[in-house]
Amino acid sequence: MDTEHPRFDEFVQRFEALAEDAQKHEGQKPALSGCKIYLTLFGENGLSPEEEFEFLDKLATHKENGLKRLDIETSYWQNIVLFVE
Q1: Is-above-0.90 flag for pTM?
Q2: Pairing mode of beta strands 68-73, 23-24
Q3: How far apart are CA 81 and CA 60, in angstroms?
Q4: CA 72 to chain centroid
Q5: Could you tell me which residues are beta bridge partners of residue 23?
Q6: Dist CA 15 CA 19 (whole Å)
Q7: Do the Cβ atoms of 79 and 40 come closer than 8 Å?
Q8: Beta bridge mates, 70
Q9: How many beta carbons lie within 10 A of that of residue 11, not counting itself?
Q10: Sheet holding 37-40: strands in order across?
Q11: By C-alpha distance, which of 80, 71, 9 is closest to 39?
């Protein structure tokens, strides 16, 4: 989602709350293109803002069964990916 979008703060809050409940992925990093669904906190997801909120709702349905998070950290950039394999 564009960081300048009026609902960006709401998106970040909902995403981070969901990320807290997700199982942290350990081991070899998955090929995200093979996942059923995934969404990144920062960056271009290729979705409209409304679709990104819909994806958050879809991911929330997997909270108890299969929702994972992948933390990406470099020396200058951090991101979180929520996904279901």
Answers
A1: no
A2: parallel
A3: 14
A4: 11
A5: 68
A6: 6
A7: yes
A8: 81
A9: 19
A10: 23-24, 68-73, 78-84, 37-40
A11: 80
